[in-house]
Amino acid sequence: MFYLGCAVWAYEGWFGNFYPADLAKNDSLKAYAQRLTAIEGNTTFYAIPSPNTVQRWQAETPPDFRFCLKFPQTVSHQGLLCPQLPQAQQFLDRLLPLHQKLGSVFLQLPPSYGPAHLPDLLSFFESLKSYPIKLAVEVRHPHWWQPHHQTTLHQALSERQISQVILDTRPIYRCADDPQHQSKRRKPDLPVTFHQTAPPLIVRFISHPQWQNNELYLAEWQQFLTPLLQQNQDVYFFVHCPMEDHSPFTARRFYQQLQAAKLVTKPLPWDQLMPVPQQLSLF
User: Backbone dihedral region of 4: left (phi > 0), alpha (psi from -120 to 50 degrees) or beta?
Assistant: First the structure.
C-alpha cells in the first residue's frame, strides 16, 4: 500500500482550494481523510493528545487511513532518551486505541543527538519493543552520515526492525531561490540515503513551491520506490513545503505520476470526490 499525506490537516491556506471555503475548522481531519490516505501529524510533537482527541481521530477517519505520529519533543529533545521512557510509554499507551490506523510512530532526533548516543537510542527502543506498534527514527546529526556510523546505525535498526525515516530537503536547497526565507525554523540540509532499514518505508519530502524544482527528485523517488511497490510493501510518503499551500497539490501530482507508471492502481480518495458545483457567471 502506498500511503500519501502531509504534515498537518488544519492549515489555514487550504480553505477555498484543497478544502471547501465554508468547511468548519473542526471538520478538517474528516475532509483531509476524504482526500489523502495518511497524516504525519506534527501535533503530537508539541503535546500528548487527550483520550477524547484520539477517539475523535479514530471516529473521523476511514478504516484504511493511517497516522504516522511523532513522539513529543519532551521525549526526543531533552538529551538522553531513556530517562524519558515513562512519558514515551504514556504516549504510546494513549495511541493504542487507533488500532490498525496507527501506521508508525517515529522519533525525530535533534541535531545534537549524534552517534555517541547510539547505546541510549537502542536501549530506548529495546524498552518499547513489547508495544504492538511499528517504530521509526529520524536522525539529524551530520556525523550519522559518516560511512562507519551509517553502517552501524543501519545494521542496528535492521536487527530491531526499526525504520529510519528518510528526510529529503534537496528541492529547497538545490534551487536558485530560498523558499525558506520566511520560515521560522529551517529544515536541515543533510544527505539523502536511499536505504530501507525495515518496513514500512517512511519518506518526508520537503518540496519546493514550484513543481519544476521537484521533478528531478520525485523521478528519483519513483525509481527507488518501484521495487518496493511491486513487492506490495507499505510506503508512507509525506510532502511538506515551506509554503504549505502547495503541499497537497504536489502530493497529488506525484500520486498521478505513480499511477501513470502503473505503480499504484487504487484511486486517490481526493480524485473520487464529486466536484464542487461552480456558479455560472453572466457575460
Answer: beta
